[in-house]
Amino acid sequence: MLQLVFTLDYEIHGNGDGCPLELMVEPTDRMLDLFDCYGAKLTIMAEVAEILRFREHAVTTGRDQFGYEAIVGQLRRAVASAHDVQLHLHPSYCRAVYRDGRWQQDYASYDLARLGHDRLVKLIGVGKAYLEDTLRGARSHYTCSVFRAGHWSMHPSRDVVEALATDGIRIDTSVFKWGRRDSLVKFDYGAAWHRFVPWPIDVADVCKPDPMGSVFEVPICAEHRPWWAFVTLYRLHRMLQSRVHRLGVGYSGNKTNSISSITRAAGSAFKRHAWKLDFNQCTGRQLVRALRRAERENRGAPCALPIVLIGHSNFFTRANVRNLRLVLEYVARRQNRFAFARFDEVDFDAIRRGFHGARSTDNA
Ligand SMILES: [Zn+2]
């Protein structure tokens, strides 16, 4: 049995562009309606740093320009029903200022894993407390226990993993096997223990298991695929959007020249890359085939295992609805093989007992 956990990073564009009502509330409403049709469950990964800026702006100006009340209402309705809300953080919003029609980022604070232990404990603690204070009125036992780092930044690991444990966060869901970045953030998840099976984290390296680890990694499910698997209209749309709302304007670190970019792109055409189960960018058929492959790989596992899929509210188009509908229909008709789940429905005790026996894809 595979438990499908659909996660949605709930945020405006990464460079601070865009209207929260259009990029967060409206697309998420469409998703929640769609999920309710199939009894599916959505886990909204709420980017709390920007939501707190929207609240502050409303309080100081007396004008709810960024739809703060609509955001809170939506998150409360989600946890009052079958869905969930958990913590996502882009620390560059903590000191962001609204100027020239956009939230100007503090790029010195962009790379979450490099903020240092004390700042991370405070940042994650504030985010968790905010969600629990805001949402316990809607679900009395609501707990914030799951985290996703902004731009998936979990390397180096020790400070951030220790901060998660200190703040009572039990699950991280930032890692995707084979993922690499070397720009605004720097990580290499090539050695991640598995492409979808969770593991208790070794604080020294989020990619490695430690049977005694108190925080679990539940990776975003990924495959290692050649470039042609990435050719979809949805991915093209996402790339164009990313160019329009380009990240890092005003950032002076680590610039690469165009020749080295071209050389790197030419070289990478012959390599395989991390292909996430991303419902903004993959077609419905691609996702269904990926679920079948995970099911085959999971055959014989001693307990149900989660499969984490990812999407972003700011890139959620009407075409994505058609694709998601196909996936939800497929899953809803095969309830003996697949289930819709939230993280709190995953049996981590059973996984901890059995994870030694699960097959690592390190050498795949
Ligand atoms: Zn994000």
What does this structure look like?
- The chain is of the alpha/beta class.
- The protein has ten helices and 16 strands.
- Strand 6, helix 5 and strand 7 form a beta-alpha-beta unit.
- The longest helix has 19 residues.
- The protein is globular and about 60 Å long.
- The chain starts with a strand and ends in a 10-residue tail after the last helix.
- Zinc ion binds next to loops.
- The site of zinc ion has 6 residues, from loops.
Topology:
Blueprint: E1 2-10, H1 20-38, E2 42-47, H2 48-61, H3 68-80, E3 84-89, E4 97-99, E5 102-104, H4 117-135, E6 146-149, H5 158-166, E7 171-172, E8 180-182, E9 186-188, E10 199-202, E11 205-209, E12 216-217, E13 222-225, H6 233-244, H7 258-268, E14 273-276, H8 284-298, E15 305-312, H9 318-332, E16 338-340, H10 348-354
Parallel strand pairs: 1-2, 1-15, 1-16, 2-3, 3-6, 6-7, 7-12
Antiparallel strand pairs: 4-5, 8-9, 10-11, 10-12, 13-14
